[in-house]
Write a structure and sequence with these properties.
By secondary structure, the chain is α+β, with helices and mostly antiparallel strands. The protein has one domain: Protein of unknown function DUF192 (Jelly Rolls), CATH 2.60.120. It is built from 3 helices and 9 strands, in the order H-E-E-H-E-E-E-E-E-E-H-E. The strands form 2 sheets. A 7-stranded mixed beta sheet has the order 6-5-8-3-2-1-9. Strands 4-7 form a two-stranded antiparallel ribbon. About 20% of the residues have low confidence.
Length: about 170
């Protein structure tokens, strides 16, 4: 085998190796994202006093999922209201400092940034619609953002350090 053929063979092997590593990484990322999406799309329940003592047993909350760019950009914007037993969970592909705004919002909300373990790492409470175009950012990188009606945090005892539980 001459030098040129050997160089071409090595280049092809290198390209194949890089393609394998990229595809393996994408498959792992998709798997992690799908697992987070599956877990997050379940129902949240207050347990063990982590989110406040339940007044009459466990409370279930309906979770609206924003898991792609279009849904995350729209968020709760344009809605007239959100039922008190509902929240929107934004699922992101990787931890980062995701900003939240009140574009087209018609009601105030509580915003919670969550880490990969669904622990509240930052919050903005009772954010008014008039704050747009201000963008709110967390103090550290988050994997998820949860939005509920203003008063959601106070009513349920949620604060920085609380851990949210999602059930199947």
């Amino acid at each position: 085998m001459n030098g040129r053929s050997e160089a071409i063979r090595r280049l092809i092997l290198l390209i194949a190796l890089v393609a394998f590593l990229v595809l393996s990484g994408l498959a792992l990322k998709k798997s992690l994202f799908d697992n987070a999406k599956e877990t997050a799309s379940q129902i949240y329940e207050r347990t063990g006093g982590v989110l406040g003592e339940p007044k009459s047993g466990a409370e279930t909350i309906n979770v609206l999922i924003a898991d792609d760019d279009a849904k995350r950009t729209l968020g709760l914007g344009g809605r007239k209201s959100l039922p008190d037993d509902s929240v929107m969970l934004f699922i992101f592909p990787k931890p980062d400092s995701y900003g939240i705004w009140m574009k087209d919002m018609k009601f105030p909300i509580d915003i919670f940034w969550l880490d990969e373990n669904f622990s509240v790492i930052d919050e903005k409470i009772n954010v008014a619609t008039s704050t747009y175009p201000e963008i709110f950012y967390p103090n550290s990188k988050a994997s998820f953002v949860l939005e509920g009606n203003a008063g959601f945090a106070e009513k349920r005892g949620i604060r920085v350090g609380s851990v949210l539980k999602f059930l199947k």
